[in-house]
Amino acid sequence: QAKYLAQIVVMGVQVVGRAFARAVRQEYAASQAAAQARGRSGQQSAATSSITGMSLQEAQQILNVPTLTPEDIEKNYEHLFKVNDKSLGGSFYLQSKVVRAKERLEEELNIQRQQEKQQNVET
What is the pLDDT of residue 122? Predict the structure, then answer.
């Protein structure tokens, strides 16, 4: 019976491994397609999402900022960071997500500024 159990476990791991690999390939393909659709700045944004591990949309949802304004980002970040302080009974995990969301949105603002500068130079 141990032999059959081991075979079942191995097969299960293989199935999960293949599904994970397929999901990663699909996510990468979707990311590339989205980047191509948005042009060069989209490629930078997709690369930043890949590096930070968080999409722009997810970061906006976490900090509850529908439009990217530095003031709203900072205000919502400060509030959510304080509310999730572990010493006040908050969650370190959520607090770290808030920090990562702020970092991701700041990177997006930098990408937008660079794109604006480049457009001003070209015109």
Answer: 67
